[in-house]
Design brief:
The structure is a single chain. 39% of the residues lie in helices and 18% in strands. The chain has one domain. It has five helices and five strands. The model has no long low-confidence stretch (mean pLDDT 90). The longest helix is centred in the middle third of the chain and has 24 residues. The protein is globular. Strand 2 and strand 3 form a beta hairpin. Helix 1 runs parallel beside helix 3 and helix 2 packs across helix 3. The chain is of the alpha+beta class. The chain has a three-stranded antiparallel beta sheet, covered by helices on one side. A two-stranded antiparallel ribbon has the order 4-5.
Length: 158
Amino acid sequence: MNRKSGRGLLNYTTQIKIENTVSEIELILSRHGARKVLKEYDGAGGVSSISFTLVIGDKEILFKLPMNEKAISEILNNQATERKIPRKFLHDIEQARRVGWRIIKSWVEAQMAIIETRMVKIEEVFLPYAWNPKTKQTYFQQFEKKQLTAGDYKIEEE
């Protein structure tokens, strides 16, 4: 989404450590029924995604929330070049990581608030992130690649 208001990306000024934000996300998920929470790391020791399980009906379903640092970095670089945000954020991959995780934390927190109102079920919100261990893809990734249609997705047991 292109924001033309002249403001920077949500949370672009954050200085909160990634580890702290990820811990906050884990706490939010656990308070809302997550049975397991797993952090996956990139080759450099940075958290690249968070996976968690929820019991839905009688099944424990795995979900995966990725953080796309390259996309965040590109947006920050563009905004810094266009002087929408200070130039100190130009080519700052660590800042992109902090911002990315902070955005995910804000999103998870907002989704949980909507779930608490009973306007939606937790599985409605997180369905695109349901992880299929056999294909190593989320529901959305399979749908996007046209490997399935909305009517034929089944969570398979391991």
